[in-house]
Amino acid sequence: MDGIQKEFELAGRSSYLRIDLDTILHNINTLREFCSKTTDVIAVIKANAYGHGSLEIARYLEANGISHFAVATAWEGAQLRQYGVTGYIQILGSCIKEDIYTTCKFNLTPTICTAEFLQAWSDWYLNQNKSTGSVVIKFDTGMGRNGCQQTELNSLIQKCDDLKIPVHSVMTHFSQAWDDPKFTQQQLDTFLTATKDLRCRGIKLHAANSAAIIQGYGTDLDFVRPGICMYGLPPDPSKATVEKIKSLNLKPALSWLAKPTLVKLLPPGSYVGYDKTYQCKEEEIIGTFSIGYADGYRRLLSSGGGYLTSIDGKRFPIIGRVSMDAITVKLDNLDSQKVYYVMKNDYTSGHSLTKLADELKTIPYEIATSLGQRLPRLYVSDEKLTVTM
After folding, report:
1. Is 46 among the residues known to form the active site?
2. What are the helix and strand counts (H, E) for the chain?
3. What mean pLDDT value characterizes the chain?
């Protein structure tokens, strides 16, 4: 318990996220086992590394041999550069002209799918009298979202040749790699057929996300792009998927701990929280915790929908409304220094991130990326602790 109290002191708040960096590296190495020995990793750290904290994770992974990263926006990439991340950073979202200044200033690599962007990209570098930066071309093989069509791919490659724009790689993205093998194979076949002559030119290829890595699609290309499973989370919260992820020895890297900011004894008949949705039937011990839906703890978990657990595993229900900055919990003791799990770093606890996603009829991605920026994130590696606010 002394170690946990020290963590609260470092966090500087009554609640914090605890992220095990060594677990993230373990998960990446586990996923590598599904790939060819020549396949490299592009670590996907968009959306603040799926809520885990992109800066510290990128720094840690760089120190452990990972040199390629992917984010969603130029702004995300710029933040990493400003705090010292030096590796290759790809912007996964389709870039537009307004992204060019930031992308170039911070040496980021855009993902493109139009000739218009390529012309604007080339013009910017000509105006700066600099060598043109490389791009990634995205090819839509069935996702129907970003990416050029098959009939446009060769013309984009030719446009890059004409403008002397280096092509770092060509990529695609699978829409349902976890549970639709027929369509995923069709996407992969389309991609490989269209790009078969490009590898001879030194243009790299990549397609596989977490689900595709595990299911074996595109794992012999130049890169794979692990995302959700890098953090030890399953693509969906179904029992079959969770069992599969557990069987691979992937592990959740994140837990959420909290202490009450106030514990008090309320008399029978007292109301708790907004809208008087809870009334004490007897004298009850009520703990107030300084977290709420602004921190990513969902309002749908109000009135018994959620619970905390003590370190020894005892459950304590949420009572009343989850509000923006506070939850109230029915406790069995007046100890304001006692520590509780808000989310536990496993798959089976009712308040694990995965189980909460299932309870809320959503996916682990949404729960993780909703975790508030104002929550301190405490990072553990080889028993060393660092914290970011």
Report:
1. yes
2. 13, 21
3. 96
Q: pLDDT, tens digit, for every residue of 202-258?
A: 899 999 999 999 999 999 999 999 999 999 999 999 999 999 999 999 999 999 999
β-partners of residue 111 are 94, 136
CA dist 122 to 22, 104, 129, 223, 333, Å? 41, 11, 10, 26, 67
Q: How far apart are CA 365 and CA 229, in angstroms?
A: 10
Which residues have CB under 8 Å from 243's CB, separation 6+? none
* Dist CA 227 CA 206 (whole Å): 14
Q: Is the dihedral of CA 216, 38, 91, 23 positive or negative?
A: positive
Q: Please tell me whether residue 11 adopts helix, strand or coil conformation.
A: helix
Instruction: List pLDDT tens digits, range 257-269.
Output: 999 999 999 999 9
* Active-site position among 83, 101, 274, 314: 274
**pLDDT at residue 3 in the model:** 82
Q: What pLDDT, on a 0 to 100 scale, did the predictor assign at position 1?
A: 55
Residue 189: how many CA atoms within 13 Å on its side-chain side? Answer: 6
Quick: pLDDT tens for 45-60.
999 999 999 999 999 9
The pLDDT of residue 382:
85
Report the candidate in 51, 50, 92, 44 with the shortest Cα–Cα distance to residue 69: 44
Cβ neighbour number for residue 364 with a 10 Å cutoff = 28
Looking at residue 72, the DSSP 8-state letter turns out to be S
Q: In 196-258, which ranges are continuous DSSP H helix? A: 210-215, 239-247
Using alpha carbons, list the distances in angstroms from residue 386 to 9, 278, 282: 12, 39, 43
Output the pLDDT for position 383.
73
Pick the catalytic residue: 46, 138, 251, 330?
A: 46
**In the annotation, is 330 catalytic?**
no
